[in-house]
Design a protein that fits this description.
The chain is mainly alpha-helical and 476 residues long. It has one domain (4-474). It is 72% helix and 1% strand. The chain is built from 19 helices and two strands. It has helices at residues 4-22, 28-36, 44-61, 63-68, 78-89, 93-126, 131-147, 154-168, 194-211, 230-252, 258-273, 282-306, 312-323, 332-335, 339-368, 373-392, 395-413, 419-441, 453-474; strands at 171-172, 179-180. Strands 1-2 form a two-stranded antiparallel sheet. A hairpin with a 6-residue loop joins β1 and β2. α1 packs across α15 (339-368) and α7 (131-147) packs across α8 (154-168). The longest helix is centred in the N-terminal third of the chain and has 34 residues, at 93-126. It is globular. The relative contact order is 0.19.
Length: 476
């Protein structure tokens, strides 16, 4: 990480992430997924440094347009917009931006501290998992990602999760080598690659959605002094601590992304302080930014120790690692010695660069906030095309990307979430292989599965997730 190439790559990734996140309509996932395929020719270490830098930079970058022009650069910045834009209208946008810079860094520190502390413990626990427990953990990830999609969307979330599982079953069976649902198409015998699917959903779909959105961005408010002040930390340390816990815990739940963490933290903050943040309050910005940045470390915890992504961004990191032949899970320390400390160093360096670059990149970013969508999105579509082709230099992958993107656009219009589908697609092989291995091991004596305490706890968790989803649907 401390080589010249590593530091320069982190610097470039963070800067690109801040600029990308500052452009309305360009999400964190879009930035990462479009560039995964293009990192194929890079050394694995450089590719991961670059993607981590983009992730860290873009999570902060979304706060800039949210505060200054009332349009969140990323979905996780919506609570920041609600609390920050009224401040900008009163001429206090500099204070809101300064708070976003400082507390984004603090949120990243909190997430990293949790990841460094708990990852070794999680690996020790996960090493005791058998096929039955791994199947249930993967199923819990799919189910909970559907449950958390919204009060009235649990059924849609679960449907997308099952559809992702279905797509993951296409190709050659992992146990007996039998072809499934390939329909004689040679390209389908190896299964559907999830990178073209992710590029279609997070690149092409979002670009098409932005092109058809007629809303025009208002002019940016004038930005005065925005240097972060240590007094903010002394004043809002309680909210920062509370939001750090919320961000990391929500991040560790599969399918619960930074947007959910920011909303939960924002709501809890209002109840704890008795304030109405939407009237314009720096503390609302603090709650939102700490949570969505702490979410990074939290989401990487199950991704690194169980190979189960906490959100779509960590799923993209898993995809990038798989592209370079690196598989994570309980045996990561034996299979790839030194990888976890390297990942910690990537997050540490990117966080430092984010704070330093944010101080100099905010004012230039303001000047590009109002670039017309008709200029930006065709470039995004071009990146999607190149990114899909560069995964395996296959025209079939480009077709999958276009088909997924067009289908995703139709699903988005009807309120279907994408995170459960991605979780289902990535976790499908884990579900399939471990369930069938369990059946082979315990054939004729399935009652023994009930004497595995961890498995029993996971069954209860899955049942509770279904119950909560149905209850929220019945009581919107």
């Amino acid at each position: 990480m401390l080589t010249v190439a590593g530091l320069f790559t982190a610097l470039a990734g963070v800067l690109l992430g801040i600029i990308w996140g500052a452009l309305p309509g360009l999400s964190v996932n879009m930035a990462m997924v479009l560039l995964v395929g293009m990192t194929y020719s890079l050394p694995p270490q450089i590719a991961i440094i670059f993607l981590i830098g983009i992730w860290v930079g873009a999570e902060f970058g979304g706060a800039i347009p949210a505060i200054l022009i009332n349009i969140p650069g990323t979905p996780a910045a919506v609570p920041t917009q609600m609390a920050g834009y009224p401040l900008a209208q009163r001429g206090e946008g500099g204070a809101a931006i300064g708070a976003a810079i400082m507390f984004s860094m603090i949120g990243n520190w909190a997430g990293l501290a949790v990841l460094v502390t708990l990852a070794p413990l999680m690996i020790i626990i996960a090493l005791d998992f058998g096929s039955w427990e791994m199947f249930l953990v993967a199923m819990f990830g799919v189910v909970i990602s559907g449950t958390l999609t919204g009060k009235e969307q649990a059924i849609k979330g679960w449907a997308m999760g099952w559809f992702g599982l279905l797509l993951s079953m296409v190709g050659t069976d992992l146990i007996h080598g039998v072809e499934r649902w390939s329909f004689g198409v040679n390209e389908l015998r190896g299964g559907i690659q999830y990178l073209p699917v992710m590029i279609g959903l997070f690149g092409l779909t979002e670009a098409l959605n932005a092109l058809t959105n007629k809303r025009q961005a208002p002019a940016a408010t004038k930005l005065k002094r925005f240097k972060p002040s240590i007094r903010l930390m002394r004043r809002y340390w309680r909210s920062a601590l509370r939001s750090s816990v919320v961000g990391t815990v929500v991040g560790a739940i599969p399918g619960a992304g930074a947007n959910i963490a920011a909303y939960v933290s924002y709501t809890i903050g209002e109840r704890a302080t008795g304030k109405k943040f939407s009237d314009g309050d720096v503390e609302g910005v603090v709650c939102s930014e700490v949570a969505n940045n702490a979410n990074i470390g939290g989401s990487l915890l199950p991704a690194t120790t169980l190979a189960i992504p906490g959100n779509s961004s960590s799923a993209i990191i898993l995809a990038a690692l798989a592209l370079h032949g690196i598989t994570l899970g309980p045996t990561v320390n034996e299979d790839h010695p030194g990888f976890l400390p390297f990942l910690f160093a990537c997050l540490l360096s990117s966080n430092i660069f984010m704070y330093c670059l944010a101080l100099g990149a905010v004012r230039p970013s303001v000047k590009i906030l109002t670039l017309p969508t008709g200029v930006i999105m065709p470039v995004v579509i071009l990146f999607a095309l190149v990114g899909a082709f560069s995964v395996s230099f296959s025209e079939f992958d480009v077709g999958v990307m276009f088909l997924t993107g067009l289908t995703g656009y139709a699903l988005l219009r009807h309120g279907y979430p994408f995170a459960p589908l991605i979780l289902g697609l990535i976790l499908g092989p884990i579900v399939d292989e471990n369930l069938r291995r369990t059946i082979l091991i315990y054939q004729g004596s399935y009652e023994q599965l009930l004497y595995r305490p961890i498995g029993d706890l996971l069954i209860v968790a899955i049942a509770c997730s279904f119950y909560l989803g149905m209850r929220r649907r019945a009581n919107p």
